[in-house]
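Thought: the user asked what AAA+ ATPase domain-containing protein looks like in 3D. I have the sequence; next I should run the structure tool and report back without guessing.
Action: structure_tool
Action Input:
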Amino acid sequence: MAGIFDCEADGPPDGGSRDLIGRSWESAELSRLLKRSRLVTVVGLGGAGKSALAADAAHRIARTCAPVVAVDMSGAHGVGQVFQALSRTSGDHETLLVLDNCERLLAASARALGQLLGEATGVTALVTSRRRLGTAGEAVLPLGPLRLDDAVRLLALRARQLGVRLSGGEEERVTAGRICLRLDCLPLAIGLAAGQLTGHTPRELLVRLSDAEASLALSGGPEVPERHRTLRHCHGRSHELCLAQERLLWARLSAFGGTFTRLAAEKVCADEQLPVEAIGHALDGLTAQGLLSRVNHRAELLRMPRTVQDYGAEWLARLGEETRLLERVLLWSRGLL
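Observation:
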């Protein structure tokens, strides 16, 4: 990671965002998809940077003098508001429509976009959501966490924007890397952590983050949207989007402390409330939101990000199941379950 603290936020040569660090491949892939499909959805865990990637693509297209209409759907509460938002788009010209944060109204957004794209042949839609729309012709770009070096560069940039310059010494670079790993290398979490560096050294911050409560309580200023005000807010929004069995499985999976197999999930988590035959579907639902990820692209081996575990563990304790699930994980690890 040598030298990354010294890297300025110089934008790429093609005029991309100066703050969009570590997303060169994703940016290029999004540009390619927008040329091939009239409906592209960027999906991923809350805080992964979907909105920033979409905004970067929109700015690139706007610089070509093509019309761009951007609509934040986070405040929409019904079908009528979805259609009202989409009515701002004219199909008479080549137009990019950006619908940001569609996850709370997926069905309504899919229906409205299907109608719009059928009538307005000049419109291309770019959607961000924690789940895909699931409509015909939809191209999907999954967005995961940053690579570690890029995450550390982003932490240094966000800290410098707040007037804190990291020294670049070996110990501080390692500490910064551990902070980013603790926060799953999520851009949102890294930005919130950088805000804490105005009052704490990196080492002090890392110690604070060893406490799950402290990591979930990382907060931004009033300019941060409420859904991203803390990691607890961010993961809480995903929790609201889950089905009841997905929420229960999320809580129980937190007992594994990271990586587990689908078979282990069935053996440890199944009971009358959560039948074994329902677990596969619930695992797929959590994976679709980025709350679980496949390890080395192996469908049978799954991993839950650390801060997602923290949130699930809070619910597990709230449900009164913490001791029972930890005991079952221990029995499973010893081959006794």
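Thought: the tool returned a structure. Summarizing for the user.
Final Answer: Structure for AAA+ ATPase domain-containing protein predicted. Strands lie at 39-43, 68-72, 95-100, 123-129, 139-142, 259-261, 293-295, 298-303. The longest helix spans residues 106-119.
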